Amino acid sequence: MFTFVRRVTGDIGRFFYTEDMIEREFLMNVLYIMNSCPLCAKAVKHLQERNYPFVAVNILEDPQARMNLKETTGEVYTPALFHHGRVTKGKDILNLSGEEESS
């Protein structure tokens, strides 16, 4: 599915993971983002502040991720968070509390 992803950490470090590692370590909480997207930056910050485990995939750096997003949702829209078998998009991500992780 993914050729690579970037895990966003407090220092915006760069780590590369295989799809199997993502499934095992992050339970497929994947946030699709784009460069210079203010709402994407807010979503990343919001999830980090709540210690919500996720990986961020920049669809401008990963064409395969962009195609996967289009195939899955029918559109290329960021931010889009895939978690717990559902998709949360846009400002709705800012309403997540992190408690969803335990449900």
Question: Would you kindly provide a written description of the structure presented here, covering whatever features stand out?
Answer:
The protein has one domain (19-102): Glutaredoxin (3-Layer(aba) Sandwich), CATH 3.40.30.10. The model is unreliable at 1-17 and 22-26 (pLDDT under 50). A hairpin with a 2-residue loop joins strand 3 (80-83) and strand 4. With 103 residues, it is of the alpha+beta class. It has helices spanning 19-26, 38-49, 63-73; strands at 30-33, 55-58, 80-83, 86-89.
CATH T-level fold name: Glutaredoxin
* Total number of strands: 4
Tell me, briefly, the overall form.
Answer: globular
What's the total helix number? Answer: 3
Q: What value does the average pLDDT take?
A: 76
Over all CA atoms, what is the radius of gyration? 12 Å
CATH class: Alpha Beta
- Supply the number of structural domains: 1
* Beta content: 15-25%
CATH architecture: 3-Layer(aba) Sandwich
Largest sheet: 4 strands, mixed
Show the helix and strand layout.
Elements: H1 19-26, E1 30-33, H2 38-49, E2 55-58, H3 63-73, E3 80-83, E4 86-89
Parallel strand pairs: 1-2
Antiparallel strand pairs: 1-3, 3-4
Which key features would you list for this structure?
single chain; 103 residues; alpha+beta; Glutaredoxin; disordered N terminus
